[in-house]
Amino acid sequence: MSKKLAVVLALVLVVVIGTAAIVYAVVEKASDAQARVATVTTAAAPNDTTAGVEYTATGTRYDSATTSISITKVSTGSRNDKVTYYVAHVQLQPGTIMQSALAGGFELGNVAYTSDIAAANDAILAVNGDYFSARNTGVIIRSGVLYLDNPARRGLAMYKDGTMEVYDETAVSADQLLAEGVWNTFSFGPALLVDGFVPVGLDVTEVEDIGEEWTILGSQPRTGVGIVEANHFVLVVVDGRSPGYSSGVTLSEFAEIFRQLGCSTAYNLDGGGSAAMYFMGDLVNDPLGSGRERGISDILYVK
Q1: 249 pairs with which residues across the strands?
Q2: Which residues are CB-contacts of 285 (< 8 A; sequence separation ≥ 6)?
Q3: Are the CB atoms for 161 and 227 separated by under 8 Å?
Q4: Which of 63, 92, 147, 199 has its CA 20 to 30 A from that of 42?
């Protein structure tokens, strides 16, 4: 073999090895972005004794020793009848609970974006809450603290044992709720499912006493929470008012989504321009087809 040929072969070998190294690095980086293992620091919730949590996560899934979250995008229909919504299944180990956070405290007028409240509270997953600051009625308990006791409607009670139920605010005292282990209540509605059944008249009755300027009827963007069994929650956010992408759903259609997902109880939260879902630092849905959030008073989240 001539000296010149040997030099050429050596150069070719260097190029091949270099190219292989670059390809390997790119593949490894992409794989690492797709699934990563990290340690996060979380504030202690009731019965939580760990400060750091190791987890694996992708753009649609999160898993740790205490929490499992999976998010699915669903689109049905076509053209102006198309509906797009996002479903988050949340499965928690006993002692890990759904939490709520406020936008700057419990005062009328305090609002912030869902994503900003979520980020400030180190949330993994969050949706907007009931926008309690828009009215002065209802029973509002957050993180085991009673903020408002002015019964008006059917509310949602979420317990520390990982269960939840729809209840009549006018039929039970706030003290009793706290004594029974209620950690958070939400006061908006209506109830979408009770004992697995859709209440009669969802599409003809407005929510009790939320103000004449509010309407929740017709096809709208929606946010709601349901439960399959203890510690298995389902959060759904439906986009709307955006023809060709998502027209929104009626309340009975929203209830049917939860029923088909296997929920026994489900409750409607604030919707419209407030409807937002946040996951791992990003806004998941597309509010009103504009990608812009509306300021709200509170969130329901997982940490």
Answers
A1: 220
A2: 84, 85, 86, 237, 239, 275, 276, 277
A3: no
A4: 147
The residue among 99, 277, 264, 85 whose CA lies nearest residue 192 is 264
State the chain's mean pLDDT as an integer.
84
Q: Give the Cα separation of 108 and 117 in Å (integer).
A: 16
Residue with tokens 């969050």, as numbered in its chain:
126
Note the pLDDT tens digit of each residue in 39-81. Answer: 233 333 333 333 467 999 999 999 999 999 999 999 999 999 9
Q: What is the tens place of the pLDDT at every residue in 99-113?
A: 999 998 777 679 999
Listed in sequence order, the residues at least 6 apart from 206 whose beta carbon sits closer than 8 Å to its beta carbon are 214, 215, 216, 217
- Two structure tokens written together for 266: 């489900």
The Cα–Cα gap between 23 and 19 comes to: 6
Could you tell me the two tokens for 176?
Answer: 């009793």
Q: Domain map of the chain by residue range?
A: 1-34, 44-302
Residue 33 has pLDDT above 50, yes or no: no
**Sheet strand arrangement including 182-186:** 164-168, 154-159, 182-186
pLDDT band at 210 (very low <50, low <70, confident <90, very high): low
